[in-house]
C-alpha cells in the first residue's frame, strides 16, 4: 500500500520516512507474542496497528504546508462534498410544501403519448396543490415540469452530473444539481408524498425499486406509488407476481405497494389522496 492510500490527510508525509516507520513497526511486531503488544495508535474513531501506524499527528499533517494536494481527491474530503450536497438540497427544498415526484425516461419523444401524459399529470398535480419534482432532464421529466409550470405550480428539477451534458430543462423553477445519485434519491423521497412513475429505463427502475424497498421495509409510510402505463409496466408486474412472489422472494402483500393505471385522473387521485 502506498503512502497516498494510507494517509487520508494527505498533508505531505514523506514516502521514505513513512516506509521506514512501517518497516520498524513490523520488525518490532515480529518480536512480540502474537496478538499482544502490537504498535497501536488511535486517531479519532480510527485505530491503526502494526504497519498501518503513521508517524506524526493529524494536526501536524494538517499544518504542514509541504507536500502534494492529493488529499483533495481522498475519501475523507468526499465526505464533506457529500455533506454539502445534503445541506444544499435540504436548504433548497425545506419549504417546498406538499409535492409528488414524477419519474420517466429522458428519451421520451416530445410528440409521444407518454410525453402528453406527463404534461397532463404535471398540470393535474399542480392544480391539486402539489409541487412537481422530477430529475430535471428532458423527455418525461420535462413533460411533468412543463405541465406544472403551465398550471402555475412549483416545478422542481433535481439534476445529476453525468458523463454527457444534459442540464435542467427550461420548465424548472427550482433546480439543484447533484454529484451523487444516493443524495439525489434521498431528496426525491424526503420531499415527496408519493411517486408517479412513467415509462422509463434503468434510472427510472432504480428510483422505482428504491421507493418500493423503502415502503416494504417501512422506512417510509403512507407513500403511494403509481405506475402509469399498463402495457409498459405489465410485463414487469407479471414477473414480480409469477416469479418473485411465486418463489417466495416477495410477499403477496407486496403487490399492494403500487398501483398501475392508464388514467391520468386516477393516477393523480391515488397519489394525492393517499398521501394527504
UniProtKB/TrEMBL annotation:
Residues 1-48 are annotated as: Disordered. One of its GO terms (biological process) is cytokinin biosynthetic process. The keyword Metal-binding does not apply. Residues 31-43 have a biased composition (Basic and acidic residues). GO terms for cellular component: cytosol. Its EC number is 3.2.2.n1. Pfam families: Lysine_decarbox. The keyword Nucleus does not apply. It catalyses: 9-ribosyl-trans-zeatin 5'-phosphate + H2O = trans-zeatin + D-ribose 5-phosphate; N(6)-(dimethylallyl)adenosine 5'-phosphate + H2O = N(6)-dimethylallyladenine + D-ribose 5-phosphate. GO terms for molecular function: cytokinin riboside 5'-monophosphate phosphoribohydrolase activity. Keywords: Cytokinin biosynthesis, Hydrolase. Belongs to the LOG family. PANTHER family: CYTOKININ RIBOSIDE 5'-MONOPHOSPHATE PHOSPHORIBOHYDROLASE (PTHR43393:SF2). This is Cytokinin riboside 5'-monophosphate phosphoribohydrolase.
Amino acid at each position: 500500500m502506498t503512502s497516498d492510500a494510507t494517509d487520508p490527510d494527505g498533508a505531505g508525509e514523506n514516502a521514505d520516512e513513512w516506509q521506514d516507520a512501517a518497516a520498524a513497526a513490523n520488525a518490532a511486531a515480529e518480536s512480540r507474542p502474537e496478538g499482544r503488544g502490537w504498535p497501536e495508535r488511535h486517531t479519532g474513531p480510527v485505530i491503526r496497528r502494526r504497519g498501518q501506524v503513521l508517524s506524526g499527528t493529524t494536526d501536524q499533517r494538517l499544518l504542514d504546508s509541504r507536500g502534494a494536494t492529493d488529499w483533495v481527491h481522498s475519501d475523507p474530503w468526499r465526505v464533506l462534498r457529500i455533506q454539502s450536497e445534503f445541506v444544499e438540497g435540504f436548504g433548497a427544498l425545506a419549504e417546498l410544501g406538499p409535492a409528488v415526484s414524477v419519474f420517466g425516461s429522458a428519451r421520451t419523444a416530445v410528440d409521444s403519448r407518454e410525453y402528453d401524459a406527463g404534461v397532463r399529470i404535471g398540470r393535474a398535480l399542480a392544480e391539486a396543490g402539489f409541487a412537481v419534482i422530477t430529475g430535471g432532464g428532458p423527455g418525461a421529466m420535462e413533460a411533468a415540469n412543463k405541465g406544472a409550470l403551465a398550471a402555475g405550480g412549483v416545478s422542481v428539477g433535481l439534476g445529476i452530473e453525468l458523463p454527457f451534458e444534459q442540464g435542467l430543462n427550461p420548465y424548472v423553477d427550482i433546480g439543484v444539481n447533484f454529484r451523487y445519485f444516493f443524495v439525489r434519491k434521498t431528496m426525491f423521497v424526503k420531499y415527496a408524498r408519493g411517486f408517479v412513475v412513467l415509462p422509463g429505463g434503468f434510472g427510472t427502475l432504480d428510483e422505482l425499486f428504491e421507493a418500493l424497498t423503502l415502503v416494504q421495509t417501512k422506512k417510509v409510510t403512507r407513500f403511494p406509488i403509481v405506475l402509469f402505463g399498463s402495457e409498459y409496466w405489465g410485463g414487469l408486474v407479471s414477473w414480480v407476481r409469477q416469479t418473485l412472489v411465486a418463489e417466495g422472494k416477495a410477499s403477496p402483500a407486496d403487490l399492494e405497494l403500487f398501483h398501475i393505471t392508464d388514467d391520468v385522473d386516477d393516477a393523480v387521485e391515488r397519489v394525492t389522496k393517499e398521501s394527504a
